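Entry 14. Two folds queued back to back today. First construct below, sequence then structure tokens.
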Amino acid sequence: MKVHETSIAGLLRIELDLQRNPDGWFEESFHRDKLAAAGMPPYEVVQHNVAYFESAGILRGVHAEPWDKYLSPSAGRVFVAIVELPEAKVETFELGVGDALYVPRGLGNSFCTIAPHTVYNFLVNEPWSPERIAVNPFDPELAIDWPGEELSFTEKDATSPSLAEVRSQGV
């Protein structure tokens, strides 16, 4: 496992050890001690969520929740945009099997599937709650260049406030 710093403080890109074999592959997707030795902060998982997306082009976010997240696909590929709030600094990644991100609480997290049959794992260090800050993923200030021509998104995400509106509320 290799941990790499990014241009956003606390956000880490992680290369996982992927062992390919004639039948497929094996990946140790989360190993607390190895990740800590590689430079990830202490992290106690309290909940593991798995989401399956049948199609490419499914978009979710931008959501900033009150917990740290460890994100990793176990099938398919995702385009991930992480937003530092309220500065509007955006860093994007393409993740597949063998990749992970550590996203500290308060950073905006959004993603778009870029392959069908994507399975995305979310390990969090606090139980899920509806508490979050949402920002419109199509906000021109963020200027996220989402992949694909046809995107599927929730009305709630598409009608989330702009970053300027969120800032005016004190974020």
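Second construct, same run, same settings:
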Amino acid sequence: MTYLLNALSVILQLAFSLVATLFVLRLLAEASRADFHNPLSQFLYKATNPVLAPVRRVIPNWRRINLAAMLLAWLVMVLERAALFALMGVAPHIAGLLLLGAADLIDFVLLFYLVLIFGWSLLSMLQVDPYQPLMRLAAAIVEPLLRPLRGKLTAGTLDFSPMVVMLVLIVARILLARPLIDLGTALALGG
């Protein structure tokens, strides 16, 4: 029976991660002012707007931060944890579940940036067309993180700023997200 539970938990995590990715991408694309004429940006808008539009009437943006997308991504993470606890047959405490949702969202965003910067750097080194829609969206999202270090960590034509930012993201996952996940798990399980 545990094999079936493991398979179901993987499927649940994948499904919730895909939904969370849409909301996180929408949040980051709006915050970084990604080109709306990009076909991927238009897809994000069309895929998330039916759910976001009613929520945005109640929760407006704060500066360039789409608070409605952040709230929905957090709710997706909370629902994912609740579903995983239900699969295990555990009734978690609500405070721990809410904290776990926030910790999971922080960890998800940090990991998302880590993967995106790595992929963008790799594709940049392979000299993929910078006007390709995926490259334009990825560049718009990673640029705010790379901009402070851009040009300061170069050796010849190599720019090491993506490597430094990726290292900072890994350390943030270890020092910020992991303790929050541990605390949320302890609270959820009543420990």
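Quick look at the second one. The longest strand covers residues 154-155. The first helix runs from residue 2 to 31.
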